[in-house]
Specification:
The complex is a heterodimer of chains A (about 220) and B (about 800). Chain A has about 220 residues and is an alpha/beta fold. Chain A is built from seven helices and ten strands. A six-stranded mixed sheet of chain A has the order 6-7-8-3-9-10. In chain A, strands 2-1-4-5 form a four-stranded antiparallel sheet, covered by helices on one side. Classes of the chains: A alpha/beta (about 220), B alpha+beta (about 800). Chains A and B meet through α1, α2 and α3 of A and α1, α8 and α9 of B.
C-alpha cells in the first residue's frame, strides 16, 4: 500500500526573544492510505505544530511532507490551500464553524469554495449522515457543543476527503457527547476509507487508532 | 458564481448581525454630505451664472472703440454661437425745450442674448423684442429729468422717436464708471436715419456672444490673441468680482464642511473596518484551511464591498438630493428664484469620493483578511496578519489628499487643511498615549478602581489613543457645529453690516468737494469720505520701460495698456490689509503701495520702483508695501496708492462710497440733478445679492453640519464598538476572579471618563484651531474663540462618552461570564 502522508526530517524552530527555540525535532514517519494515526503527548509537546505542518497550515524550518505524493512545501500558500481543498478534511477542538452561516451553509462551504454545482444536495446528505437534518437552518450559536462538532464532521466528510485531520475533536465536549462524536467520526472514516490523523490527549481514543506517534518536547519518543 | 452567492450569503448574515451597519451608515453620510453640498452649490452657481450673464447680456462681451473686424463674428458663427452687436454713443436728447446728454444704445434684433430687459409700457414685464422702429425706450433718469410720460416724443439727431417704454431693469451696463448719463435704447436699423454717425463720432461697439459653454470658452481663447489694445473682452467671471469672491468663499467653506463630515465618516469606517477584520479572522482562517485561495477570499469580500459601495452611494446620493431640495424649499429667496435643476456632475463627484473613502479607509484594511494564516485554526492566539501598514495608511492619506484637493478647489487650502489635520491627529494620538501612560505611572495616588482604569488604558495604550483621536474628531465636529459655526457665520455676515455703502460717487471735481459735503449735510446724510483719483499709465518698472508686449499674459498686457486709477492718502483704508512691507509714516515721500494680486500679475515686488505717466508728465515711486484688498467690502479700492506729494499736483477727480438709506432714495435724484456730471452708481443690488448668498450659505452650512454631527456620532459609536469585544472578554475574566457588577461598572465608567475627558480637551483644541483656520483663510474675518468651548469640550466629552459607554457596556456586567468566555 502506498503512503498517503510521508513526513521526513520535520523540524520547526521559532524565535523566543533573541534565541531560537526548537519545538519540533527531526520528525519522520509515514501513514498508509486508509490507516489511522493518533499523535499523542503532553501539552506543549508539539502535537498541534506537527498537525499544522502535516496539513500545510504552517511551514517547517526544515524537512518535507508528501501528501498523496505532492511535496507540500514546494507549493506556494495558494497551492497548499488547493491541495487541502482536494485532499483533506478538518475537525477542530473549537469546532470553527462560521458564526454567520447556518449549519447547512457551513457544510456547503468547502464545496462552494471548490466550485461544486451540487453543493446543497451533498451538504444535506452529509448533515443527514450525522443526524442533524432537522437543525440544518440553525446558526451555530443555537446549537449545542456536540451538535456543532457533528456539523463540523459533516463539513469535514462532505468533500469525501482522502485524509481527515482532527485536532482534539472531543476537547471541548463532555465525556458522553465526546464519545458519541468519536463513534460517528470513526464510522464515517471507515465508511469512506479515509486516512485519519488525530491529535489527542485521550489515551483510550489513541488506542483505537491503528498507529500512535508519541511526542515529548518535540521529539518522537514512540512510533 | 458560487463564490458570489457565498459572498452575498455571508453579507446577508453579517448584515443581520450588524457587522456592516456602521460601515454603510458612515459611507451613506459621507456621500450624502458631499452630494448635498455639491448639488446645492451647483444650483446656486447656475442661478448666479444666469444672474451674472444677465448683467452683461451675454456669455461673452467684447467692447471696442472701433468697429470689429468681420472675422470676429465669423469665428463665433463658425462655432454656432449667437452674436449680436450694439453701438452706443453719447448724444443730446431733445424734449420740448430741454436737452440732456444721454447714452444712446442702438441694438440689433435678438438683443440681449442672456437675461431680459424689464420695461414698463403700461404694465411692467420682460421685453420680448427690441424697440420697434421709430420708437425708443428710455430709463427712469431721463423720464424724471424731463418730467416726461411714456408716449411722448423726443428728438435724437435728425429724427424724432416715440418713447414706447420706460426701462425698469436694464442689463448689459458698463461695470466701469462711464455710464453716468441716462440711457436710451433704440433699434439699430434707425441709427442711420439720425445722421449722427459721422466721422469722429464717439462710438463704442459691443459684440455680445452666447451659446454652448465649451464653444464660448474656445472662442474666448481664440480671440484672446487677436484683440487689439482698444478691445476688451469680459465674461461673467469678470463682471462682478464681489459676488464671485463671496461665492468662492462660500464654496470653500461648504466644501471643507462637507469634507469634515467625509473625514469623520472615514474615521468611523476605519474603526468599523478594523472590527470587521478582527471578527472575520477566524472565518477566513477556516476558509483558507478548507482550501480557499487568497484570491477567493479577496473576491468574497470584494463582492461585498462593491455591493456595499453601490448601495451606500445610491442611498447617499438620494439623501443628498432630497436634502438639497428641502434646503432650496426652505430658503424663500431660492424657492422663488425657480432654480435650475442641479447637474449630474456633483452626484458623480460625491459617488467617486464615496468609493475613494471606501477604498482608502475600509477596503485596504480588509485586504489583510486575504493573508490570514490558516494556522490560526489551531492557534487562535495568532493576531492580525502584519499589514503593510505604510501602504494602507499611505493609500488612505492619498485618497484623502486627492479628495481634499478636489473639493477644496485650492491646492494651498487643501494641503493646509489636510496637513493640519494629519499633524493634529498624530500629535493628539501621541499626546493621548503619553498622558495615558503618565496617569498609569502615577496611579498609586488614586483609588483602586481608578488605578485599575489607568493601568488598563495604558496597557491598551495604542488602541486607547486611537479611540481618543477618533472621539476627538467626533467631538470637534460637535463643537464646531454648536459653538464655532454660529460665531463664524455671525462674524462673516458682520462683514456686510446694514450700513454697508450701497452707492458709489464717481467723477467728483475738486471744486465740488465742499458743495458736495454741504449737500450731504442738508440731506442729513453723514458726510462721505472722498478719495482722490488720478489716472496714469505704468510705463516703467525699475527704470526699465514696459509696454503690452512685455507680458505674454493677456491680463497683464491689458493692465499695462490701459490707465490705472491711482490715489494718494496718508492712512491706509481700514478695509485694506498689509500683506508685506509697511505703511508709510507722516513725512514719507515717493512711496507706493500696490494691491498684491496685481503685483503678482505684473511681477512687482516690494523695493521695485514704478514709473507712471499721467497726462504726459511722469513720476516715479518705490513700492514699500503690498496690500490685500477686500473686493467684497463695497468700498472704494485702488490698485495703487501713493504718498500724497507724488500725485497732489496732478489733476484729480474724487470718488466716494456711502450708504443711502431706502427712505432717502429721492436724495439720490436730487444729487444727480444738483451735480449732473457726477456719476451715482447703485450697488444695492450687488450687496443684496452677496447678502443673499451669505444667507443661503448660512442655512446650507447648518444642514451640512448636521451631516458632520451624524458622522461624529457614527465615529463615537464605532469607537466604542471597536473595543466592545475586548471589554466583554476582560469583564468575564474579572467576574470569574470575583469582581462584582458595581466594581466593573465603576471601572468602565472611570475608563470612559478618562477617554471622554481627554477627547473633549483635544476636541476643543481642534475646534478652536479649525475655527481660526476657517476665519483666517476661508472667510478672511477676525475671530475670537469662545472660551466656553474648552469647558463644554472637556465636560461634554466626559459626559457623552460615559453615557454612551455605559449604555454600550451595561449588559456586560449582567451576562454570565461562562457564556462570554465560551462564545469567545
Amino acid at each position: 500500500m502506498a503512503s498517503i502522508v510521508q513526513a521526513a526530517g520535520l523540524t520547526k524552530q521559532v524565535m523566543s526573544g533573541d534565541s531560537p527555540l526548537t519545538i519540533l525535532h527531526d520528525v519522520s514517519f509515514a501513514v498508509e492510505a486508509g490507516e489511522s494515526m493518533a499523535i499523542v503527548g503532553a501539552s506543549g509537546s508539539g502535537k498541534s505544530t506537527l498537525l499544522g505542518l502535516l496539513a500545510g497550515l504552517d511551514v517547517p524550518s526544515s524537512g518535507s511532507v508528501l501528501l498523496h505524493g505532492a511535496d507540500l512545501f514546494k507549493l506556494d500558500e495558494d497551492g497548499r490551500a488547493r491541495l487541502r481543498g482536494e485532499l483533506a478534511g478538518f475537525v477542530f477542538q473549537s469546532f470553527q464553524l462560521l458564526p454567520a452561516l447556518n449549519a447547512l451553509e457551513n457544510v456547503m462551504l468547502p464545496l462552494e469554495l471548490a466550485g461544486a454545482a451540487d453543493a446543497r444536495q451533498r451538504a444535506e446528505l452529509s448533515l443527514r449522515q450525522v443526524g442533524l437534518s432537522a437543525r440544518a437552518h440553525h446558526l451555530p450559536k443555537h446549537l449545542s457543543g456536540g451538535e456543532q462538532q457533528r456539523v463540523a464532521l459533516a463539513r469535514a466528510f462532505v468533500t469525501q476527503p482522502r485524509i481527515l485531520f482532527a485536532d482534539e475533536p472531543t476537547g471541548n465536549l463532555d465525556a458522553a457527547t465526546g464519545a458519541q462524536v468519536i463513534e460517528l467520526m470513526l464510522e464515517l472514516n471507515r465508511a469512506q476509507g479515509t486516512t485519519l490523523i488525530l491529535v489527542t490527549h485521550d489515551e483510550a481514543l489513541a488506542r483505537r487508532c491503528g498507529k500512535q506517534l508519541r511526542l515529548a518536547a518535540g521529539r518522537v519518543v514512540q512510533a | 458564481m458560487n463564490l458570489l452567492r457565498l459572498s452575498l450569503n455571508l453579507l446577508r448574515r453579517d448584515w443581520r448581525a450588524g457587522e456592516w451597519r456602521v460601515l454603510l451608515l458612515a459611507l451613506v453620510l459621507a456621500v450624502g454630505s458631499l452630494a448635498t453640498v455639491g448639488l446645492f452649490a451647483d444650483r446656486v452657481r447656475q442661478a448666479l451664472q444666469q444672474q451674472a450673464q444677465s448683467l452683461i447680456g451675454a456669455d461673452l462681451r467684447i467692447t471696442s472703440t472701433r468697429p470689429f473686424p468681420p472675422d470676429y463674428r465669423m469665428l463665433a458663427n463658425r462655432r454656432s454661437l449667437q452674436v449680436v452687436q450694439s453701438r452706443s454713443f453719447p448724444s443730446m436728447v431733445l424734449y420740448r425745450e430741454q436737452v440732456l446728454l444721454s447714452e444712446i444704445q442702438a441694438v440689433e434684433a435678438g438683443y440681449p442674448l442672456r437675461g431680459k430687459i424689464e420695461i414698463d409700457d403700461g404694465s411692467v414685464h420682460a421685453a420680448k423684442a427690441i424697440p420697434a422702429r421709430g420708437t425708443v425706450w428710455a430709463d427712469e433718469r431721463l423720464l424724471r429729468r424731463f418730467d416726461m410720460q411714456i408716449g411722448d416724443e423726443v428728438g435724437i439727431g435728425a429724427r424724432r422717436f416715440r418713447v414706447a417704454a420706460r426701462i425698469v431693469k436694464d442689463i448689459d451696463q458698463s461695470v466701469g464708471f462711464s455710464s453716468f448719463a441716462p440711457r436710451v435704447l433704440m433699434n439699430d436699423a434707425d441709427l442711420a436715419s439720425t445722421r449722427l454717425l459721422q466721422e469722429g463720432s464717439r462710438l463704442s461697439y459691443r459684440l455680445l456672444v452666447a451659446g454652448e459653454a465649451l464653444q464660448v470658452k474656445a472662442l474666448r481663447a481664440e480671440l484672446e490673441g487677436k484683440l487689439s489694445g482698444n478691445e476688451k473682452m469680459e465674461d461673467v467671471r469678470d463682471a462682478r468680482p464681489e459676488i464671485r469672491t463671496a461665492l468662492e468663499r462660500a464654496e470653500h467653506f461648504l466644501g471643507l464642511a462637507a469634507l469634515t463630515a467625509a473625514i469623520l465618516a472615514g474615521a468611523a469606517m476605519a474603526l468599523a473596518a478594523r472590527r470587521f477584520v478582527l471578527r472575520h479572522l477566524d472565518g477566513c482562517a477556516v476558509m483558507r484551511c478548507l482550501g480557499a485561495q487568497q484570491a477567493q477570499v479577496l473576491w468574497l469580500f470584494l463582492y461585498q464591498f462593491i455591493l456595499l459601495g453601490v448601495v451606500a452611494v445610491l442611498l447617499g446620493g438620494l439623501l443628498g438630493y432630497v436634502t438639497q431640495a428641502l434646503l432650496v424649499e426652505s430658503i424663500a429667496s431660492m424657492r422663488d428664484a425657480s432654480l435650475p435643476q442641479p447637474g449630474v456632475v456633483p452626484l458623480l463627484k460625491a459617488a467617486a469620493s464615496g468609493f475613494a473613502l471606501l477604498l482608502g479607509f475600509a477596503f485596504l484594511p480588509l485586504l489583510q483578511l486575504r493573508k490570514v494564516s490558516p494556522l490560526r485554526v489551531l492557534r487562535r492566539e495568532m493576531g492580525m496578519p502584519e499589514a503593510s501598514g505604510w501602504l494602507i495608511y499611505g493609500l488612505a492619506i492619498g485618497a484623502l489628499a486627492l479628495l481634499f484637493l478636489w473639493h477644496a478647489g485650492s491646492l494651498k487650502l487643501g494641503l493646509a487643511v489636510l496637513g493640519g489635520l494629519l499633524a493634529g491627529l498624530l500629535v493628539f494620538g501621541w499626546l493621548a498615549w503619553l498622558l495615558l501612560h503618565g496617569l498609569a505611572r502615577n496611579s498609586f495616588y488614586f483609588r483602586s478602581q481608578w488605578r485599575h482604569a489607568f493601568n488598563n488604558l495604558a496597557r491598551h495604550g495604542r488602541s486607547a489613543a486611537v479611540q481618543v483621536v477618533a472621539l476627538s474628531l467626533g467631538g470637534m465636529a460637535l463643537l464646531v457645529l454648536t459653538l464655532v459655526r454660529a460665531d463664524l457665520l455671525e462674524a462673516w455676515q458682520g462683514k456686510l453690516p446694514p450700513d454697508t455703502p450701497n452707492r458709489f460717487l464717481v467723477n467728483i471735481q475738486p471744486d465740488q468737494y465742499q458743495p458736495l459735503r454741504d449737500f450731504f449735510m442738508r440731506q442729513s446724510l453723514p458726510s462721505p469720505e472722498l478719495q482722490p483719483m488720478v489716472r496714469g499709465r505704468l510705463v516703467a518698472i525699475n527704470e526699465r520701460a514696459i509696454n503690452g508686449g512685455s507680458y505674454p499674459d493677456p491680463r497683464a498686457r491689458g493692465l499695462v495698456e490701459r490707465e490705472f486709477n491711482l490715489s494718494y492718502m496718508e492712512q491706509m483704508p481700514v478695509w485694506n490689509e498689509l500683506s508685506s512691507g509697511r505703511w508709510w509714516g507722516r513725512d514719507a515721500r515717493g512711496e507706493l503701495s500696490v494691491e498684491e494680486g496685481i503685483a503678482r500679475t505684473l511681477g512687482i515686488h516690494p523695493g521695485d520702483t514704478l514709473t507712471y505717466d499721467v497726462a504726459g508728465s511722469r513720476f516715479t515711486g518705490r513700492v514699500t508695501s503690498l496690500r490685500k484688498v477686500q473686493w467684497d467690502s463695497m468700498r472704494v479700492n485702488f490698485f495703487v496708492i501713493t504718498t500724497p506729494e507724488l500725485l497732489r499736483e496732478f489733476p484729480a477727480s474724487y470718488l466716494s462710497s456711502f450708504y443711502l438709506p431706502p427712505d432717502k432714495v429721492r436724495a439720490g435724484d436730487e444729487l444727480a440733478r444738483a451735480f449732473p456730471n457726477i456719476l451715482l452708481i447703485d450697488t444695492g443690488a450687488v450687496i443684496a445679492q452677496v447678502r443673499n448668498i451669505m444667507d443661503q450659505i448660512a442655512q446650507t452650512v447648518s444642514a451640512v453640519f448636521l451631516f458632520t454631527l451624524l458622522s461624529g456620532l457614527a465615529v463615537l459609536y464605532a469607537a466604542l464598538l471597536a473595543t466592545q469585544d475586548e471589554r466583554s472578554h476582560e469583564a468575564a475574566i474579572l467576574r470569574t476572579l470575583g469582581a462584582d457588577s458595581r466594581y466593573l461598572r465603576s471601572l468602565h465608567l472611570s475608563e470612559f471618563a478618562v477617554l471622554g475627558g481627554l477627547s473633549g480637551l483635544f476636541a476643543a483644541a481642534g475646534a478652536v484651531l479649525l475655527g481660526w483656520v476657517l476665519a483666517r483663510f476661508v472667510l478672511e474675518i477676525p475671530w475670537q474663540a469662545n472660551p466656553a468651548v474648552w469647558l463644554i469640550g472637556v465636560g461634554g466629552g466626559m459626559g457623552v462618552v460615559m453615557l454612551a459607554g455605559w449604555l454600550a457596556t451595561r449588559k456586560l456586567t449582567l451576562r454570565s461570564p461562562l457564556r462570554i468566555l465560551a462564545a469567545d
